[in-house]
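Dear Dr. H.,

I hope your travels went smoothly. While you were away I took the liberty of generating a structure for the chain from your last submission, since the lab meeting agenda had it listed for discussion. I wanted you to have the full record in hand beforehand rather than looking at slides cold. The sequence, exactly as received, is reproduced here:
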Amino acid sequence: MAEIPLPFPVDPVATFGAFRARWPCAVWLDGGAGGEYSIMAADPAETLVARTGRTWRTTAAGTECLSCGDPLAALNARLTDRAASRSTQQPDWPAPFAGGAVGYFSYELGRRLQGQTIAPEADTLTEMAVGLYDWALVLDHERGKAWLAGEVPSEVAEWLATGPETSPDGWETTGPVMDEPGLEAYALAFDQVAHYLREGDCYQVNLTRR
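The corresponding predicted structure, in token form, is as follows:
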């Protein structure tokens, strides 16, 4: 376990653009205005992706089906195995994150775990996508410090210490942008939600579009 100080301040937007351009599966947990920390990580040692009831594990060696059961149990098992093999040395500075799991969990995953029906058009969607990261860049906004924390590869430390090019890369869609369910259908659904709220049938609804 290592913690390597870096020059501060750091432009988080430009730095994350450089992360995305250089390494796969870059993530940014933005502390936002007034937040104490922002955390970035990239190039996970492995990824876990769950869809249609199976959890797939991808490493440098390839992809395998890890589980046909609970994806959260599969994730917990991998975290336990990794924790047993990593250094237990505690750093002097209490880093909020020095490697671990970062990803997302969909509403469909919750429905599957609860045994609820999943709409046919949603059954093939990715229900969980998590990277297991060995290191992270931690921006301490309150103390004015930047650190590399975790099991940091030498090439990462050298790249960041030498002031890499941090021009954010652009992005573009790979196909037409579809609006579902459409403005008219969404407006009707919104009116129905407002009716439920007025009648006291519910107190909160997440009405989303995709």
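Two observations you may find useful: Residues 2-161 form a domain with the Anthranilate synthase fold (CATH 3.60.120.10). DSSP finds five helices and ten strands in the chain.

With kind regards,
E. W.
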